[in-house]
Specification:
Helices cover 41% and strands 23% of the residues. It is α+β, with helices and mostly antiparallel strands and 228 residues long. Keywords: DNA-binding, Transcription, Transcription regulation.
Length: 228
């Protein structure tokens, strides 16, 4: 993580996301811009959380570690999700891992600042409650999807959620398959068979250590926007 104290950049992202009412003078002067590289952990399960973060650029995936050591996909974060809101309210450690899918930018507000003022700030409290409610609904929906949808649909949706933007010249999918199989609750062999089936349908093309999406439209139809 790289931290920058840049008031102009902070103001730019506040205006772009229309969240001026959430940033009083005290919050503004203590805010920072936080940069994360692709595949960097923004939050790590069990660690102390030091910032409430407003996600203003990029994408991240959220997953937890089960008692048997397996990983389970919970959610995806994008603009304007918040990170650290639950930990601010419960004063607890991070309950899951948040990993950057691509380079990410957040506005970070130190929790030590917010803990003294947030409960008197109705605008911020309403925003955080609304944010927590939306994340709970998404997480419940995604948990149901992991149980009810065939793997082919889940893989298609996952690839779209983490893949390079469809406007790029090459749409690439290059994550570690053993990790993906855990996140999607399947075996490595089943995942590999599913990816091979998508290649046989001319939706994906296998390169040396990654896949290229060659039929984005059909991949979208398979995904049906199931992960949100």
């Amino acid at each position: 993580m790289q931290r920058v104290k840049d008031i102009n950049l902070i103001e730019k992202y506040i205006r772009l996301n229309k969240i001026e009412n959430l940033f009083n003078d005290e919050i503004r002067k203590n805010s920072e811009i936080l940069f994360f590289n692709k595949r960097e952990l923004i939050f790590q399960e069990g660690e102390e959380i030091k910032y409430l973060m407003f996600f203003v650029e990029g994408k991240a995936k959220v997953y937890t570690t089960l008692k048997n050591g397996k990983l389970l996909l919970l959610d995806f974060y994008k603009e304007l999700d918040t990170l650290g809101d639950l930990e601010l309210i419960t004063n607890d450690f991070a309950s899951c891992n948040v990993e950057a899918i691509e380079p990410c930018i957040c506005i970070g507000i130190p929790l030590k600042v917010l803990r003294n003022i947030y409960y008197n700030d109705t605008n911020l409290m309403n925003f955080l409650c609304n944010s927590l409610g939306k994340k709970l609904k998404r997480s419940s929906k995604n948990a149901s999807i992991n149980l009810m949808y065939p793997l082919e649909n889940r893989v298609a949706s996952y690839i779209i959620s983490i893949g390079t933007d469809k406007n790029s010249e090459i749409i690439k999918f290059d994550e570690t398959l053993t990790v993906i199989s855990e996140l999607l609750g399947t075996s490595y062999r089943h995942l590999l068979r599913t990816l091979n089936r998508l290649c046989n349908k001319n939706i994906l093309k296998k390169e040396e250590d990654y896949y290229i999406i060659i039929d984005y439209k059909n991949l979208e139809e398979l995904a049906a926007d199931i992960y949100s």
